[in-house]
Specification:
The protein has nine helices and 15 strands. It is of the alpha/beta class.
């Protein structure tokens, strides 16, 4: 996904385009079709306009492709294609920085598919030593790969898998220990309470970067060593999310879920039957009420190329300019 960060410099808003370079989800699919080919088109598009792209490369997944070529379904030699594309991007003046999904690190290959280690899904809740090791390994991978192309290359920016930067203390400490000085994971108004849990509703700003408090990424601390460059986001009603791209993603997600869970196992069916009584009815009613009330609330709307239409993106940039163009920043 492309997620622009909008920063201000001398009364101008600067768009920093970032691309999460990965197969989204559980790693199934053709990496050549889902990663390499689309990125090639995007790089050509950016070159045509003289723009620069920062590729946030999921180093854990990429190294898994190198270790087990069978993960890259229908893409013989895909690791070589990925390696060459990252080198070519840097050669053309674009940038590559660090992104990682820890659930791939100890993933296995079984029954013709990649099985993720879901115990490591939420990066920020892993032990400090584990976070530090993953970040360090990813940084070394990128610098060893790209310094032969650009000797001055440095891996200094990071985006967490699933935006997982909460709780903040250990992950900020791990980033700084590895020489990472920029994070770009936070989006104001964002909340999750599922496999990953965070609440960024009190983030310092939706646009202007800030030096982060070592114990809380959303809070400004002028002595902080890690700078947060937020993904641009607005609080908007549900109707604002309507776009063809979002419908395509929903369709793909639903199709995958139905294929994987076309008929639940006996244990699951039994639990559903057990919950069909009075208690189950109350739970279903409560769920329906929560879903209905969500219609009238505002939600985190990220400026995401993968989900927004071109018109929506341009309108968002204009709104950002109107709201934040005269913001004060150091």
């Amino acid at each position: 996904m492309i997620q622009p960060t909008i920063a201000r410099k001398k009364n101008r808003l600067i768009l920093l385009f970032t691309l999460d370079y990965e197969i989204h989800g559980n790693g199934e699919g053709c990496a050549g079709e889902l990663m390499v080919s689309p990125t090639a088109r995007i790089l050509d598009l950016f070159d045509g306009f003289g723009a620069k792209l920062t590729i946030m490369a999921d180093t854990v997944e990429i190294m898994k492709f190198r270790e087990h070529p069978e993960y890259s379904d229908q893409s013989p030699g895909v690791y070589g294609l990925i390696e060459n594309q990252l080198k070519d991007a840097v050669r053309r003046g674009h940038d590559v920085q660090l992104h990682l999904h820890p659930a791939y690190a100890r993933a296995s290959y079984s029954g013709g598919r990649c099985v993720l280690d879901m115990s490591e899904y939420d990066l920020a809740r892993l032990p400090y030593e584990r976070i530090c090791g993953l970040v360090g390994e990813g940084k070394r991978f990128l610098e060893n790969l790209l310094r032969p192309v650009r000797p001055a290359y440095r891996c200094l920016a990071f985006r967490a898998a699933n935006w997982s930067m909460s709780p903040s203390r250990d992950i900020i400490r791990a980033l700084l220990a590895n020489g990472i000085s920029i994070d770009t994971s936070v989006f104001k108004y964002g909340k999750r309470d599922e496999l990953v849990r965070f609440d960024y509703s009190k983030a310092e700003n939706a646009v202007v970067p800030w030096p982060a408090d070592p114990s809380e990424i959303c809070r400004r601390d002028d002595a902080g060593e890690l700078f947060e460059f937020p993904i641009y986001c607005e609080a908007r009603p549900l109707w604002a999310f309507l776009s063809a791209n979002r419908f395509r993603r929903l369709h793909a997600s639903w199709r995958h879920r139905f294929r994987e869970q076309a008929w639940p196992p006996e244990s699951k069916r039994a639990s559903w039957a057990a919950g069909a009584g009075a208690g189950g009815s109350r739970r279903l009613t409560s769920l329906a009420v929560r879903k209905f009330s969500a219609i009238f609330k505002k939600h985190a709307w990220k400026l995401d190329f993968n989900q927004c239409s071109g018109r929506q993106m341009m309108s968002a940039v204009r709104r950002a300019g109107a709201r934040h163009g005269d913001a004060e920043t150091d």
